[in-house]
Amino acid sequence: MPVLLSPHHRGHSDGYITIGLVNNMPDEAVEATERQFLSLLDSASQGMQVRVSFYMLPGIPRKELGNPRNRYSSIENLWNGHLDGLIVTGREPLSPNLMDEPYWDSFSRLVDWVEENAYASVWSCLAAHAAILQMDGIRRCKRDDKLFGIFDCARVSDHPLTAGTGSRFSLPHSRWNGVAEEDLSDCGYRVLTRSTETGADTFIKDHKKLFLFFQGHPEYESDTLLREYRRDVGRYFRGEAPRYPSMPQSYFDRDIAASLTLLRDKALRGEGGAVFSEVSAALTEATIENRWYASATNIYRNWLRYICAQKAQRPARSTVVADLEQVS
């Protein structure tokens, strides 16, 4: 696995690609998100040595992550440093207007910082929407239904980041919002993959540095959408959501999908909270094929190779590194 580091001291990064992960997910999803990105980077590294450091934005409520003994550090530690690459995750928004989020000031500063202090960056889902809002004022639009499932996307632009991928490949999506491709084109973004259902799926902006945006989640594990579906069903039964959630598209096999559809119908007839236990039991029987991992690994491998090429062309700079531990 990639080497983890905690940015409390300084060290040297010769021979390593230093990646920062700004993990904005809520506490209950933090470890799963770490695991997803570390696994993806490990598979993508293919001989390249990668060091990963973890950061959090102020303004996001935290419990254990606030413990100074934890490996997470505030992004305040980044402002006077440098990383080779940065990955920024999304989270469920608290406000319809992203600029009203409690972390907005720090997030917008991070967008500006990365243009001068990293060779390339990845912005995932809500982080992608927030970044293009900060950079170019592009606003996202709310969908009537949640875009949820596995969708086939077409490669529509030749670029080193998608070299080696097929002309079509699958990627997971889980979001209520999206951005118009025309708005992206008008502001100089280049769409790499799209589909009828998802719209612009993967896109980039190559300004001072390379920005890579995913509206979907190539990092997801096989059962991530399953766990999210179970969470959303639970919210419905607890009265926290007004509608029974849609099943992820093109995800479950026919038998599991049929069972879940029958259970949904029982719930909508008001047959009681015991249905949730039946949903959970049905989900334990599901076997999910990860149809997107190979393509996701390939894109991230190309991203790491791009960083290596940029490092070879530019003078080395000091980086924020320290306190290493090997992930077992």
Question: What topology does this entry show?
Answer:
Elements: E1 3-5, E2 17-22, H1 27-45, E3 50-56, E4 72-74, E5 85-88, H2 104-117, E6 120-124, H3 126-136, E7 141-155, E8 168-178, H4 181-186, E9 190-195, E10 199-206, E11 210-214, H5 224-237, H6 254-268, H7 274-284, H8 293-313, E12 324-326
Parallel strand pairs: 1-3, 2-3, 2-5, 3-4, 5-6, 6-11
Antiparallel strand pairs: 1-12, 7-8, 7-9, 9-10, 10-11
Helix pairs in contact: 1-8, 2-3, 5-7, 6-7
In short:
The chain has helices at 27-45, 104-117, 126-136, 181-186, 224-237, 254-268, 274-284, 293-313, and strands at residues 3-5, 17-22, 50-56, 72-74, 85-88, 120-124, 141-155, 168-178, 190-195, 199-206, 210-214, 324-326. By secondary structure, the chain is of the alpha/beta class.
